[in-house]
Amino acid sequence: MDVAFLGGPLPQHGVGVVAPFDFALDRELWRWVPDEVSLRLTRTPFVPAGVSLDLARLVSEHHTLREAVRALSASQPSVVAYACASGSFVGGVLGERAMCEVMSAAGEVPSLTTSGALIEALQELGARRIAVLTPYTESVTRALEDFLAQADVAVTGRAFLGLTRHIWKVPYREVADMARRVVSADADALFVSCTNLPTYDVIPQLEAELRVPVVSANQVTMWSALRAIGVRAVGPYQALLMDAAARPAEPEGQEGVT
Fold it and tell me: Are the C-beta atoms of 105 and 80 separated by less than 8 Å?
């Protein structure tokens, strides 16, 4: 059959993604991506360890990032994202910036991390006081709080699961139950951390119920990467993805600090 009349395929924007070796949610990342964008994923080398501060440091070493970005460069992405929350907040704000510089130099394209994207998203939403929900141990959760403090973001409440493995298996209902416990009246937003924790379908439900924007690690990573190349992320009823004028008005007394 002659298929010359099809005229395709259409050009694709390439988004490179560096993920930790145990990342299991490739399909979730794709759900935020419009048809004209292709994700090009690679993973860091295997490390025989559970999720911890030590592992976060290992999967974000500069040598590891350089090699991963160089591998992605063959597919010519327009932007590269490091999709790991703990790996990008464990070194603090200065460590996150250094990671971006290393990746940009290795790939000669703009680069970002999940934790940097989080700060960008909170600024976009005008949120300076947030509740935090993580699957991590207490020590890793505290490292996230330290990172946020360095970025002048206050944590109004926190909850963590204490997991070191199989985080992608946590059901939505457990995330929702924790969110209900942790969000208080003085929170401008809720952040659900870890790119290996499923969140796509639970975000609209929680925003409707809790009346605050809900952002997650995978969501902010894809939002920021696509924004960097002038493309909008897709996702129903998610405040971060709406035009500012279309976002629901905040309840009285909960205005974000800009």
Answer: no
In this structure, the dihedral spanned by the alpha carbons of residues 210, 84, 143 and 120, taken in order and rounded to 10 degrees, is -60
Residue 169: both structure tokens together: 């298996």
Chain length of the chain? 258
DSSP letter at 200 equals T
Instruction: Using a cut of 0.85, tell me whether the model's pTM lies above it.
Output: yes
In the chain, which residues have pLDDT < 70?
1, 3-5, 244-258
Contacts 24+ apart (CB under 8 A), 250-254: 250/188, 250/211, 250/212, 251/211, 253/185, 254/185, 254/186, 254/187, 254/188, 254/211, 254/212
Quote the CA–CA distance of 9 and 185 in Å, as a whole number.
Answer: 50
Six token digits for residue 65: 């990032």
